[in-house]
Design goal:
Layout (H helix, E strand, L loop, with lengths): L1 H17 L1 H39 L20 H8 L28
Length: about 110
């Protein structure tokens, strides 16, 4: 048994010593394959959590606003809508932030100089 083990290691040493270039290429290929595999596994395992965290950093996912009415542009939502949104707190992460947005258009002054 001892002779077969020493014969095995002798053959392994000769294979490595005789084809050093081939062994280096094999080791580089194994290293590159391991790196690609680790990167893909990291993406698969962590992608959903990272996307959720990044999108939450941007702010609200949904903005509830009144429909446009033909006559008046100064409408606001009824308080009951905010109460309905707060009912979703039990199942989902939902908050209400009462903010009044103002939309305005601005134009540069005309360039009439005399």
């Amino acid at each position: 048994m001892s002779t077969s083990r020493s014969m095995f290691w002798r053959i392994v040493r000769r294979l490595i010593a005789a084809n050093r270039g081939r062994v280096i290429v094999i080791l580089l290929a194994l290293g590159a394959g391991a790196a690609v595999t680790a990167a893909l596994l990291n993406l698969q395992v962590d992608a959903k959590q990272r996307l959720t965290t990044e999108f939450r950093a941007f702010g609200a996912n949904v903005i509830v606003a009144p429909q446009k009415s033909e006559g008046s542009a100064s409408q606001t939502l009824d308080q009951s809508v905010a109460q309905q949104v707060l009912l979703f707190r039990q199942r989902y992460r939902a908050d209400v932030l009462p903010v009044l947005y103002v939309l305005a258009s601005a134009m540069a002054p005309s360039a009439e100089v005399k």
